[in-house]
């Protein structure tokens, strides 16, 4: 099938029903003009955004980002000299050196999060938008559009840049550093990548490829599941679910789940594993620094104390906060949220929602320390004069970060709002019911922000 549906970029979008994926409230989103966005009135989650010229901007950012990535792989990234010995590092050295040191986990994190996944993401965005600009429906386009939002949290070029800056502060007192052209190209690349991810108009993509879908819609102003509906996480289309809370999106074909299956059990299993791994991640050295033949293992806490001793207070605080405090805070927050889903209180889901969002947002920034070790191990290879190799602690720490990220993704925030919906409907438990087909009352329309 090669049919495309016409979407006028400048005309206001039509009014439509949306279900918030974070609190499950059904809202009637009013027509949006270009540049406007609509938020959920209950939890503030962004329901819909209308971009200016969705093809032109996104395509320009994505192509420029790919060019910058190619440039950053072609030139020297950082030059490093100490006592007359100079060494220059290319980005690919972060993969080859850590592989030689038998730390494949670090190579994998760097390759996937910093190079491969951003590149694949950009190429898929370019493929989709070029095809649509040429009025051609791309083969596999719907599947690709569904995959884009799943890839986004694992794209970590911005975190890598912060990791590079922190690692430079760590060795600034030991050596002279100079930035190569690849460093500046990579900074521009990470900015363009961020802009591309923000400018992809998911609604527009699905409308263009799948067109409007005329299906029964839930009543605005109430919880979706109490009416037998849920939102498609991939394309945002409301869809009906059966008595087991399952269904399939009529627009993009994604499997629908009214609530994430075994959300609390999965989250807690990952949280407990993270707690176990957190102990070796703090106790074992994350790297071994050899200076003039004397190896000196360094733990995360040891690194923070060393930075404090050198007077680098801001960087010491960043590392302490990102590597020590954030994993602990995240584990505590997720455990508390899981516990609260078992003891629902209908009047206080708002603050819990904010805690969940904060947990989800800050979690990936703990990867800073993993990238710091990767960069230092790739850069500082001057034999017995000065040499840095990773320690086992960094693998345990990296696993803590990845597992807590997956734990936050497994947690279904809609569970926090179920008690509120039950109180509104007077039901004893949340269960799908037959859908109603009633028009939206004017009072349920959402405010639009520019
Ligand atoms: Zn909401
Ligand atoms: Zn869908």
Automatic annotation (TrEMBL):
It is a multi-pass membrane protein. It is found in: Cell inner membrane. Coiled coil: none annotated. GO terms for cellular component: plasma membrane. InterPro entries: PqiA-like, PqiA-like_proteobact, PqiA-PqiB_transport. Pfam families: PqiA (PF04403). The chain crosses the membrane at residues 59-83, 103-134, 269-293, 361-382, 388-411. Residues 428-450 are annotated as: Disordered. Its main location: membrane. It comes from the Bacteria. Keywords: Cell inner membrane, Cell membrane, Membrane, Transmembrane, Transmembrane helix. Belongs to the PqiA family. This is Paraquat-inducible protein A. It comes from Halotalea alkalilenta.
């Amino acid at each position: 099938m090669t049919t495309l549906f016409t979407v006028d970029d400048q005309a206001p979008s039509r009014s439509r029903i949306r279900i918030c994926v974070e609190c499950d409230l059904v809202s009637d989103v009013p027509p949006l003009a270009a540049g406007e966005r609509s938020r959920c009135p209950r939890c503030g989650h962004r329901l819909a955004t209308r971009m200016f010229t969705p093809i032109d901007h996104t395509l320009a950012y994505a192509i420029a980002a790919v060019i910058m990535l190619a440039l950053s792989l072609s030139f020297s990234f950082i030059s490093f000299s100490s006592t007359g010995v100079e060494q220059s590092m290319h980005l690919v050295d972060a993969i080859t050196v850590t592989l030689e040191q038998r730390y494949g986990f670090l190579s994998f994190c760097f390759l996937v999060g910093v190079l491969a996944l951003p590149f694949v993401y950009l190429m898929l965005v370019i493929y989709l938008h070029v095809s649509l600009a040429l009025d051609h429906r791309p083969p596999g386009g719907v599947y690709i559009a569904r995959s884009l939002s799943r890839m986004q949290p694992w794209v970590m070029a911005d975190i890598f840049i912060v990791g590079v800056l922190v690692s430079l502060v760590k060795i600034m007192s030991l050596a002279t550093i100079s930035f190569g052209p690849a460093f500046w190209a990579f900074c521009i690349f990470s900015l363009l990548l961020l802009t591309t991810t923000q400018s992809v108009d998911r609604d527009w993509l699905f409308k263009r490829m799948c067109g409007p879908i005329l299906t029964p819609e839930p009543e605005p102003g109430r919880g979706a599941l109490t009416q037998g509906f849920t939102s498609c996480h991939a394309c945002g289309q409301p869809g009906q679910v059966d008595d087991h809370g399952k269904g399939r999106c009529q627009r993009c074909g994604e499997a629908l789940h009214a609530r994430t299956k075994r959300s609390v059990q999965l989250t807690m299993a990952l949280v407990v594993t993270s707690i176990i791994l957190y102990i070796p991640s703090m106790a074992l050295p994350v790297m071994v620094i050899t200076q003039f033949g004397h190896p000196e293992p360094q733990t995360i806490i040891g690194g923070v104390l060393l930075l404090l001793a050198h007077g680098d207070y801001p960087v010491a605080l960043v590392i302490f906060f990102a590597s020590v405090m954030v994993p602990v805070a995240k584990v505590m927050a997720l455990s508390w949220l899981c516990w609260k889903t078992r003891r629902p209180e209908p009047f206080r889901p708002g603050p819990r929602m904010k805690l969940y969002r904060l947990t989800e947002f800050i979690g990936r920034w703990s990867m800073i320390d993993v990238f710091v070790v990767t960069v230092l191990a790739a850069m500082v290879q001057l034999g017995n004069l000065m040499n840095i190799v990773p320690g086992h602690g960094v693998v345990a720490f990296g696993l803590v970060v990845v597992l807590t990220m997956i734990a936050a993704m497994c947690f279904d925030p809609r569970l926090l709002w179920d008690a509120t919906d039950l109180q509104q409907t007077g039901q004893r438990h949340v269960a799908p019911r037959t859908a109603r087909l009633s028009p939206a009352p004017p009072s349920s329309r959402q405010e639009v922000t520019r």
